[in-house]
Known about the structure:
- The structure is a homodimer of 176-residue chains.
- The relative contact order of chain A is 0.20.
- With 176 residues, chain A is an alpha+beta fold.
- A four-stranded mixed β-sheet of chain A has the order 7-4-9-8, with helices on both faces.
- The N and C termini of chain A lie far apart (39 Å).
- Chain A has two domains: 4-38; 42-108 and 116-173, Nucleoside Triphosphate Pyrophosphohydrolase.
- In chain A, 20% of the residues lie in helices and 46% in strands.
- The interface between A and B is large, with 68 and 68 residues.
Amino acid sequence: MREKIVRSEEIYHGRVVNLVVHEVELPDGKHSKRELVRHPGAVAVVALDDQQQVLLVRQYRIAADQILHEIPAGTLDPDEGPEACAVRELQEETGYKPGRIEHIGGLYVAPGYTTEFIHLYLATDLQESRLDMDDDEFLEVKRVPLAEALNMIERNEIIDGKSIAALLLVARRMGI
Amino acid sequence: MREKIVRSEEIYHGRVVNLVVHEVELPDGKHSKRELVRHPGAVAVVALDDQQQVLLVRQYRIAADQILHEIPAGTLDPDEGPEACAVRELQEETGYKPGRIEHIGGLYVAPGYTTEFIHLYLATDLQESRLDMDDDEFLEVKRVPLAEALNMIERNEIIDGKSIAALLLVARRMGI
Lengths: 176, 176
């Protein structure tokens, strides 16, 4: 079932993503083209406080042309481990540090065309720290009961893939 | 919170994806660059038979460099509605037609850099039809109990975002 890369061309080398077009040999010997976004990988964090509320980030997303509700998340820095990245992104975006952080899974966002893999974490025992956003990030943090976040998924008010997957994973684990 | 597009440059116009770089004006008046993959959108289908088994597709994904287990899915054809696409992709990939198909939600796969939105469906009352794969698709269809698919998520054997989200949504809806 595997495909062999015959030739590769880098089309674009950007700030977050690179675009590469591979010519591949298919299992039947024929050739085909695979357009591939190269991405360094990312993390996403369900941050749950002692009252079973989760932190959601409201952020305008140009790709969706709307403000989305997402869990805190971000891209791995070079040589950064995913857990350290999860702690850093949570603090930068929400101003909280987790007393406890636990790996709960991971996912390819779109394995047909991007290498991006997101490591998912559950952060608890939250302690107030300081906000420290990126220069070009404009976000609002919202705190909602986990049960309400699940209702937001049902009502299609949370429509971000990583957030849906991670919140449902946590709900399942907690029997909610 | 919105961003205004000041200038756009199409870097690549491909078979499935286009790459565009926007220069945007941020809410504080500063400018920034947004790298954006333009994608036509897609569907993904939880196909559940009368014995509460789901159809999984095993497929080599070059972006992950491994064989992944995913639910049946595919890209919208031009002018194709998502429900019609779901029925078509299910039949092409698994050889089954749904007697009943129901919209269960939708998600942006990576709203930071791709416009791809996946419409999620639950297909039931499955009827055998014929297989009709794309020329460059090599897949194997597997039938597993929904409860086992959920275990595969827990064990990190299903690591595809849309599949995790859609299977957990269906499990929740069925109280499993």
